[in-house]
Amino acid sequence: MYYYMKFEFKNTFLFILILFILTGCSSAKSKSITNDTTTSSDPIIKRGKFKTGAENYEAYLPLLVNKKVGIVTNPTGIVENKKHIVDFLLEKQINLQKIYAPEHGFRGIADAGEMIKDGKDSKTNLPIISLYGNNKKPKPEQLADIDVMIFDIQDVGARFYTYISTLHYVMEACAENNIELLVFDRPNPNGSIVDGPVLEKEFTSFVGMHPIPVLHGMTIAEYAKMINGEKWLTNGIQCNLKVIPCSNYKREMTYSLPVKPSPNLPNDQAINLYASLCFFEGTNVSVGRGTEKQFQIYGSPFLSNFNYSFRPISNFGAKEPMHKDILCIGEDLSQIKKVTRLELIWLIKAYSDTSDKTVFFNDFFTKLAGTKKLQEQIVNGISEEEIRKTWEADLESFKKMRKQYLIY
To answer: What DSSP element (H or E) covers 11?
Structure first.
């Protein structure tokens, strides 16, 4: 009897152990499947290392077979080992017809605001259509031989960074000409920050096209979905949009750009400070164009109570910088800790110290701010924290709208 009971106990224990193992495997398998996919309408994201949308090859290459393809891109359109997406697509025998270039051009060598002309790429012989200056939106004749358009440009998450304005016009042109648009997604290096005044409609311009805050906290593909979903294109038309997402990406991840997104954003520090310091472009204060610390310093000949100085000169990306060859007094922010919100402290400090406040602001400031209120608040001596409170209601409304368009 003793031996029988002992044997029975051992078999019961063995049975429970086997059942536990099988149940665990089944659970793990189920969890793996859940993590491997997005929604049923999205391309599959496989587990593994991080990839940009442009590197999510299996999701888009089949869509380009036997199609005449156009691409909107610049130097940031790279894949693994810094190979440009244009070169990669040509190697894959994709029938690329034209390159469409935003501000700074296809090779990214033009100054901010500099006129870009149509031309031909010396490496590939492909025609280049400029989407900056007088031709921000592709004309029907420039799209006549295109079946599918690709948009692959790295954004930095600020409303006034003009690549997202180019995206709007490309979406509109594709919608009007019945062309499918593929947006290859890339991380937003400031993607965890939603902050700043929301643009008021009467201040719409190329540096602010839609009612979003200065820092919108979306990837470029999420923003494309918002443009479509909110029917912000002319007459409420919608683009035939397909998003190619990043793989294994989370919004809170730190993302260091492998290529500078424009000539005057040379490193991660400049990209992080860009939204906060860009307000100075609407004043008589330099943000370091014409130095090696663009968007990491600020100063002017009209400031005095600061311990840093620099002298802007003509250089790559700034042929005629503000206060060229003139000594500027200001502040060096190149070593400060990463900012996690839109900072107004430096703008307020510079205004308080400037020798003639009546000429501190220029007309461009209101376009950058997207509202007249911010300039009025600073002139009236309102504190930064009090100013920030006036944004709260609009930011909460924006976040609710934004939620439905998030991918990650």
So the answer is: helix 2-36
